[in-house]
Design goal:
Chain lengths: ~120, ~110
């Protein structure tokens, strides 16, 4: 079945540094990838939608200059948290859809737990 | 915008008890509905989904959900829970087209022996 690999699974970084999270679709091409963030005891909140080869669409309240998303190929999307601060500590999850317009291809990565100290 | 409500934040059940987790979404029209489970330390897994047809949907691990359009609901049920069902359960809805999933806040299920 469709598999999405997300790395790293957890990362601890110092405040002010940048962290890159990768999301790869291993056995299918993902034209659309979604990035979610989950704070403790809260739901998954959509941060942005990225389509291969175009700029990501960010949800209201999400700083595009802080959360850089690149979707340069059909199998790879990256989220870079720039100048991370403790309040950015969260669980980040990517989701990929296999085919345009398909509802069958929603596959989630295993998530990345980011802790900023 | 679409929103999802999960009414129970934390449910504690004994093994073999029956389970029903509530899920309501905000507005109608054609929607696709999902239930995901997140076991401790693991990623989200799809339990079941509804697109159209029979409103009673069977999923994996003995779970089922019923879509009631008039109530904007998609409640998850299992007749007899096991300790291994301890997890976080998320209801999600999406509008047709190239749209993302909108998640509820999740319900933590703790099953005690």
């Amino acid at each position: 079945g469709a598999v999405v690999s997300q790395h790293p699974s957890w990362v601890i970084c110092k405040s002010g540094t940048s962290v890159k999270i990768e999301c790869r679709s291993l056995d299918f091409q993902a034209t659309t990838m979604f990035w979610y963030r989950q704070f403790p005891k809260q739901s998954l909140m959509l941060m942005a939608t990225s389509n291969e080869g175009s700029k990501a669409t960010y949800e209201q309240g999400v700083e595009k200059d802080k959360f850089l998303i690149n979707h340069a190929s059909l199998t790879l999307s990256t989220l870079t948290v720039t100048s991370a601060h403790p309040e950015d500590s969260s669980f980040y999850i990517c989701s990929a859809r296999a085919l345009p317009g398909s509802v069958y291809g929603y596959t989630f990565g295993s998530g990345t737990r980011l802790t900023v100290v | 915008a679409q929103s999802v409500s999960q009414h129970n934040h934390h449910v504690i059940l004994s093994e073999a008890a029956s389970l029903e987790l509530g899920c309501n979404y905000s507005y109608g029209g054609t929607v696709n509905l999902f239930w995901y489970v997140q076991y401790p330390g693991q990623h989200l897994q799809l339990l079941l989904k509804y697109f159209s047809g029979d409103p009673l949907v069977k999923g994996i691990k003995g779970f089922e959900a019923e879509f009631i359009k008039s109530k904007f609901s998609f409640n998850l049920r299992k007749p007899s829970v096991q300790w291994s069902d301890t997890a976080e359960y998320f209801c999600a809805v999406k509008d047709p087209g190239n749209t993302p999933l909108v998640f509820g806040k999740g319900t933590r299920l703790s099953v005690i022996a």
